[in-house]
Design a protein that fits this description.
Shape: globular
Helix content: 55-70%
Structural class: mainly alpha
Transmembrane segments: 20-41
CATH topology: Mitochondrial carrier fold
CATH class: Mainly Alpha
Oligomer: single chain
Membrane topology: Multi-pass membrane protein
Number of helices: 10
Number of domains: 1
Radius of gyration: 21 Å
Protein name: Solute carrier family 25 member 44
CATH architecture: Alpha/alpha barrel
Family: Belongs to the mitochondrial carrier (TC 2.A.29) family.
GO molecular function: branched-chain amino acid transmembrane transporter activity
CATH superfamily: Mitochondrial carrier domain
């Protein structure tokens, strides 16, 4: 009899692709809406000098809410939704790479490591230009500007429709840096998200397997997975946050060198500067990862080909 503690992984060939993509876009959009405010807060914390504006995640949340209202927490959101495209490319690349690597290795860790890194490479190639624009929009606020660009004719950062601000920022990036400006920080993004993804998936499966061996057989697999996701996200966030801080500064402040940005950050704020925005990153990652994991695993179950449904035990 099959041991229920053995967590079954649904692979690419088991899925109904049409259901997978339709459910996937809807799920991703719901996640983005719920965690975007903390993405904005993390970005502002990483860009600010020391604690000149905000003293932490909660302080930033309250100040932005008081100054700009709820809409202030969603600056750049409409532009950021275009990353839904890269999100679908990510999961497709991840699943296809797992299938390819399976011909050479049956180790789940190896498959997850290679697939996670490959998926991030593809996704970041699409995401970086969107990130560059949305991050500059995140920096728009009342009073002193935080980034390189300020929406023109609107020094206080309000009263201009969202896509009007977007067009203005795009023009300013083109004038300042040309087309290359939309890929500013591309290498830094790869150095952040490829390791993050490559680390997340193996840790996710590792934590799930460890929890499965410790819990009763009757415990549903989705419980292990819901706990393992945030644990893996926290682990990956801690390991990659230094590079994430540097990536954000390169993209928002217009830096040209990762090494010089690192040296400047160390000179101004010391080693603790590399941990800026970590709590906001973990806070945004925890609920989103629970939803992603439960949703993604449920999505794969919902997308399972009809002839395979009765053969699986959850």
């Amino acid at each position: 009899m099959e041991d229920k503690r053995n967590i079954q992984i649904i692979e690419w060939e088991h899925l109904d692709k049409k259901k997978f993509y339709v459910f996937g876009v809807a799920m991703t959009m719901m996640i983005r809406v719920s965690v975007y405010p903390f993405t904005l807060i993390r970005t502002r914390l990483q860009v600010q000098k020391g604690k000149s504006l905000y003293h932490g995640t909660f302080d930033a949340f309250i100040k932005i809410l008081r100054a700009d209202g709820v809409t202030g927490l969603y600056r750049g959101f409409l532009v950021n939704t275009f990353t839904l495209i890269s999100g679908q490319c990510y999961v497709t690349t991840y699943e296809l790479t797992r299938k390819f690597v399976a011909d050479y290795s049956q180790s789940n860790t190896v498959k997850s490591l290679v697939a996670g890194g490959s998926a991030s490479l593809v996704a970041q190639s699409i995401t970086v230009p969107i990130d560059v624009v949305s991050q500059h929009l995140m920096m728009q606020r009342k009073g002193e500007k935080m980034g390189r660009f300020q929406v023109r004719g609107n020094p206080k950062g309000q009263g201009v429709v969202a896509f009007g601000q977007t067009k203005d920022i795009i023009r300013q990036i083109l004038r300042a840096d040309g087309l290359r400006g939309f890929y500013r920080g591309y290498v830094a993004s790869l150095l952040t998200y490829i390791p993050n993804s490559a680390v997340w998936w193996p840790f996710y499966h590792f934590y799930a397997e460890q929890l499965s061996s410790l819990c009763p057989k009757e415990c549903p697999h989705i419980v292990f997975q819901a706990i393992s996701g945030p644990l893996a996200a926290a682990t990956a966030s801690i390991l990659t946050n230094p590079m994430d801080v540097i990536r954000t500064r390169v993209q928002v402040e217009g830096k040209n060198s990762i090494i010089l940005t690192f040296r400047q950050l160390m000179a101004e704020e010391g080693p603790w500067g590399l941990m800026k925005g970590l709590s906001a990153r973990i806070i945004s990652a925890t609920p989103s990862t629970i939803v992603i994991v439960v949703g993604y695993e449920s999505l794969k179950k919902l997308s399972l080909r009809p002839e395979l449904v009765d053969s699986r035990h959850w």
